[in-house]
Structures are given as structure tokens and as C-alpha cells.
Write a structure and sequence with these properties.
586 residues, alpha+beta, five-stranded mixed β-barrel, four-stranded antiparallel β-sheet, 17 strands, elongated
């Protein structure tokens, strides 16, 4: 005997639409609450709507490397700048080349925009250099140097060719007394790597052997570095930035600390930024200060182990290695033992400065140096006018859609309007939350994408409503018509939204700049359309089908059988034959 079909639901039936609707509304309220709790109550605006800063950077080649300014290096610089800005959460920034040597950077006003401006042109050339000499870097006049003969007893020539003793600054509270002439000339000789063809000016000295007297060229180079060191004033930002510019990794250099309170003579670089695998900013819980932790590559780890092994055997300050970023010494820690694998940079870091440094180290050094040619503030006046016009156009389009729905669908228009309102609220909340989360910024193309989404969302309602009407035309009552229409409408809606989302995804991948804002918004609203139709429109329609106004086919319900072409007698005949209600007839 066949099982009774009394408990069987029609195809596509939804058992508890009220529960689904309540859970959806709770989730919606939670998202809105999260938006208000985060303090980001409005979407972040792009540069065309909020204004911002436009920076023109000009590539500057180091002496003898003029050919380095080429298309490949410029494209690499653009890519690195983009990653740096995105790493700070500043989206909608535009980085593009202009001509053969200029890069234009447009940064929207908002969170981290000033920080991005400071980082975007930072070359981020990182070197680990041994410290040869350290002294106070203030602008005050240095004390008269005391003279001491060089280790060999020879004298260094001055610029006029006369002989004079090499000099050493007197010890001060901020300066460490070191045999500078000896350190500099020894560093010049140590720069030459042992080879079968050692030249007289760069002798390969075996470890433990007596140090040969410095050559005339070594003494001249040492005197030049010493003179630069004594004349260096680190009290101004300009002097600090220019101190080591134009020098190569293999050169001995003079450099300032980032704060300007110390200056150094540094030996050739032993490790550089390309040997850093990754970097991150963390807080040292024991010392209560921000530091930057670095992990080296396999090759870099070996280099770091070699240099720290050498420095650990030296006396202060020559047991220090300076971490120099773009020619300025970030920190100069001393080494007491051999290290390898990883290192940390410590100093007077704030969370922001530590994050900045880790960011530029992680995303790599720019292949070229850049100088700011111009910095222009972009106003939002033009964008505001265009936004105003776009919102008016959107409001007119929405009003026309609502008028059409009311005229054609009558009572069903209420469902469509509520669904559009829910979709609009979700879109606004998610755009506000995505700003601080992933750096999404609303620009004019994104507004256009949101306006286009009105038609996509309305199309989904129309598909469902027409399927319901088709079922009613076939003679079914509203409640089974709503459930039987859903599976067919669902397939059509899914296919339509999939095509729209696929188009948005392809557009997002193959385009750059503001067009990506249009693609992102279109894809987001397409996904929201599926969520709203499945979790709001369908449950609401199921509940309304139980109301007399809609179930009876009221002329203003939009589901009047006479208007739809169905014959009421046919529907009564089916109902009577399938389920008699009068006990006497049964």
C-alpha cells in the first residue's frame, strides 16, 4: 500500500520561512552594529570623490649609471610602489609612468595617505655595513682634533699635496675615541678580496700576519673620507639624506643616524636588502619597544654569519654593524657573538615607523632613486559635482523602476521595494566595512557599478514573479504556485547572476585603476542579489502567500487570476476533485 502523501511538501517548499527571515535580519543587524562599533560609518572615498595628493617623482640615476633609467626599471618601480601602498591599506591609489623618467602617484585623502606619501618614493636600499668610526652628529662645532701619527709613521697628504698627520677627534660624551686613521686605512685594504693576482694597492693579508704600511692611494682615500666625516653636519634633514647618496655598496661611506645625533664612517656593505627574505614589525615584550624582525635567505644567512663572526672579535665601536637604509643609519648594534639566520632592527621606533620599515623591506627596494618634483593637492569639487549628477541619475532610475513595478505588479511591488531596500542597506554596510578591512575606496566608476546593480537585482524579482504568474495561469492557487515557481526561477536567477559575476571578475582581473572599482562593486552587488533573493525575497513571498489579500487574488495584489488569463472555474474544479471539503459529499 502506498504511503500517504499528506506530509509531502510541494517541490521547492520552504518549511520555516519565518525562521530563515529572522536569522537573516539578525545577521544584517549584526553587520550594521559592527559598522557603527568600528567607527567607520561611511565608505572610504577615492581620490576623485574625497580629493587627495598627486605626487610627481623623477628618477635619479647614481653617478655612472645613467642607463639604469629604462622602461624595465621604471615598470618595476611602479609595481613596488603599488605593493607598498596596498600594504598600508591605501587602495584606489594610482601609480603610473609619465614619459621616460617620471612616475605619477595619486593618493586619496584618508587613512594612511600621508604615511603612503612618505613611503612611496623611498628607495629602501638596505645595507649592513661595519662601523669604523662613530662621533656626535650635532650641528655644534667639533672640538679641535688631536694629532697622532698613523700606524706606519707616514703622513696623509692634504688636498694641496703637503704632508700632515691624520687626525682623531677628542673624546666627547657623544663620541667614542677610536683610532680613525688606522680603522679607515685598514678597511680600505680589507676591502680587497684575496685573489691570485693581488695588486700592490690592495694586498691580500693573511690572518694573523703583520699589517703592512698603507699605500699612498689608501692614505689619500682615508684622508678624503676623514675630511668628509669631520665636515659632515647631521643636524638637518637635507644633510642626512645627502650624506651617503651616490655611493656604491663596495664603497666606504660617511653616514648620519636617522635622528641626526650621530655620524659614522662605514665600511663596504657585507649584506644588503636583497638578502632579506621577509620582515615584520613586532613589539618586544621584555623591553617594551617596537622592533623589526628580519629573516635572511640562505645566502644572506651565510653572509650575516661571516660578518658577525668578524665583528665579534673587534673592540668598540668596530664591533658594531650599521643597518643603513637609503644612506641613513637606522641602528648600529654591537656584536658579541656570531649570528645567523635572522636579525632584528631596534631603535627609537614607533608602531608606525617599525611598520613602515618592515613594509619597504618586505616588498623590496626600488631599482632607482626618486626625487619629488611636485606635490599637488587634488580637490574633490569636480568629483563631487559628478557624484551629485550620478546620484540624481540613480535616483531617477530607481524611481522609474519602482513606478513600473507598482503599475505592472501592484501589490507584488511591495516585495520588490523591500528587497531593493535590504540590498541597498547591505551594500552600504559592506562598503563601509571593506574600507578599513581591505582598503576598498568608493570612486565614481564604483558608484556606476552600484547603479547598474539596481537593474540586476530588479531582474531577479521579475523572473520570480513571472514564474509565479505562470503557475497561476495554469490554474494553481497562490501557495503551491509560489513553491512550484521557485525551483525554475532559482535556476534562471543563478545562471543570470553567474554570467554577471563572471563578467565582473574578468573585468577586475584585466583592468587597472578606477575601472577595477566598477568591476568590484558589480561583483559585490551580484553576490548580494543572490543572498537577498534566497534569504529575504523567497521567505517574504512564502509568508505573504498565506495572507488573504494575496491568496484571494485581490485586483491590487498583482495576482488576480482574471487579469492573468486564468479561469476561476477551472481552479475550483481541480480543488473540488482533488480534496472535497464537504463531509456529506465524501
Amino acid at each position: 500500500m502506498a504511503a500517504p502523501k499528506k506530509g509531502r511538501r510541494p517541490a521547492g517548499a520552504q518549511g520555516r520561512p519565518g525562521r530563515t527571515l529572522v536569522l537573516f535580519l539578525i545577521a544584517m543587524v549584526a553587520l550594521a552594529g559592527g559598522m557603527f562599533a568600528s567607527g567607520h560609518n561611511t565608505p572610504r572615498l577615492g581620490i576623485d570623490l574625497a580629493g587627495g595628493t598627486s605626487i610627481t617623482l623623477k628618477a635619479k640615476a647614481e653617478p655612472g649609471q645613467e642607463k639604469a633609467i629604462n622602461k624595465a626599471n621604471m615598470d618595476t618601480a611602479v609595481s613596488i610602489m603599488n605593493r607598498r601602498v596596498n600594504g598600508l591599506g591605501v587602495s584606489e591609489a594610482e601609480v603610473q609612468t609619465q614619459g621616460s623618467s617620471n612616475i605619477i602617484v595619486n593618493i586619496p585623502k584618508g587613512t594612511n595617505s600621508e604615511q603612503a606619501r612618505q613611503q612611496v618614493g623611498t628607495t629602501a636600499k638596505l645595507y649592513f655595513r661595519p662601523v669604523l668610526t662613530e662621533a656626535a652628529g650635532t650641528a655644534q662645532k667639533q672640538p679641535a682634533p688631536s694629532t697622532s701619527p698613523s700606524p706606519s709613521g707616514s703622513k696623509s697628504p692634504d688636498k694641496n699635496g703637503d704632508k700632515k698627520p691624520s687626525s682623531t677627534p677628542k673624546a666627547t660624551p657623544d663620541a667614542k675615541p677610536t683610532p680613525q686613521g688606522r680603522a679607515v686605512t685598514d678597511a680600505l685594504k680589507a676591502d680587497a678580496k684575496p685573489s691570485p693576482k693581488a695588486t700592490p694597492t690592495t694586498p691580500a693579508t693573511p690572518p694573523g700576519s703583520a699589517t703592512p704600511p698603507p699605500s699612498a692611494s689608501d692614505q689619500a682615500a682615508a684622508a678624503k673620507i676623514q675630511k668628509q666625516f669631520e665636515a659632515l653636519d647631521c643636524s638637518t634633514k637635507e644633510s642626512r639624506s645627502k650624506a651617503a647618496f651616490g655611493t656604491k655598496a663596495t664603497d666606504m661611506v660617511v653616514a648620519c643616524s636617522q635622528t641626526g645625533d650621530a655620524k659614522y664612517i662605514l665600511g663596504p656593505a657585507e649584506v644588503d636588502g636583497t638578502d632579506v627574505k621577509k620582515a615584520k614589525a613586532v613589539i618586544d615584550q621584555q623591553r617594551g619597544m617596537w622592533i623589526v624582525q628580519m629573516d635572511f635567505t640562505g645566502k644572506g644567512s651565510k653572509k650575516f654569519q661571516t660578518i658577525t663572526g668578524k665583528l665579534s672579535k673587534q673592540q668598540s665601536p668596530q664591533n658594531q654593524f650599521a643597518i643603513a637604509l637609503d644612506g641613513q643609519v637606522v641602528s648600529a648594534p654591537s656584536v658579541s657573538t656570531t649570528l645567523s639566520g635572522s636579525a632584528e632592527i631596534s631603535g627609537s621606533f614607533t608602531q608606525r615607523s617599525a611598520t613602515d620599515l618592515a613594509n619597504v623591506l618586505s616588498y623590496g627596494a626600488l631599482p632607482l632613486s626618486f626625487v619629488e618634483q611636485s606635490v599637488t593637492t587634488v580637490t574633490a569639487a569636480l568629483g563631487a559635482d559628478q557624484l551629485h549628477a550620478g546620484l540624481i541619475a540613480g535616483a531617477i532610475g530607481l524611481a522609474l523602476v519602482i513606478i513600473y513595478l507598482v503599475i505592472y505588479y501592484r501589490g507584488l511591488a511591495l516585495v520588490a521595494i523591500m528587497s531593493l531596500a535590504v540590498s541597498a542597506i547591505l551594500t552600504y554596510v559592506l562598503m563601509s566595512l571593506l574600507g578599513p578591512a581591505i582598503g576598498f575606496a568608493l570612486n565614481l566608476p564604483a558608484v556606476c557599478g552600484a547603479i547598474v546593480a539596481i537593474g540586476i537585482t530588479a531582474d531577479s524579482f521579475i523572473v520570480y514573479f513571472e514564474r509565479i504568474r505562470d503557475e497561476i495561469r495554469e490554474g494553481r492557487t497562490l501557495r503551491p504556485a509560489v513553491e512550484r515557481a521557485w525551483p525554475r526561477a532559482r535556476r534562471t536567477i543563478m545562471v543570470s547572476d553567474f554570467v554577471s559575476f563572471l563578467a565582473a571578475a574578468v573585468l577586475f582581473i584585466v583592468t587597472v585603476g578606477k575601472v577595477q572599482g566598477f568591476a568590484f562593486t558589480l561583483g559585490l552587488t551580484t553576490l548580494l542579489d543572490i543572498v537577498v533573493v534566497f534569504l529575504f525575497t523567497k521567505p517574504v513571498m512564502t509568508l505573504l502567500a498565506r495572507k488573504k489579500f494575496f491568496a484571494s487574488g485581490h485586483p491590487w495584489s498583482g495576482l488576480d487570476p482574471k487579469r492573468l488569463g486564468a479561469k476561476p472555474p477551472l481552479r475550483r474544479a481541480r480543488r473540488t476533485s482533488s480534496a472535497p471539503t464537504d463531509p456529506k459529499e465524501a
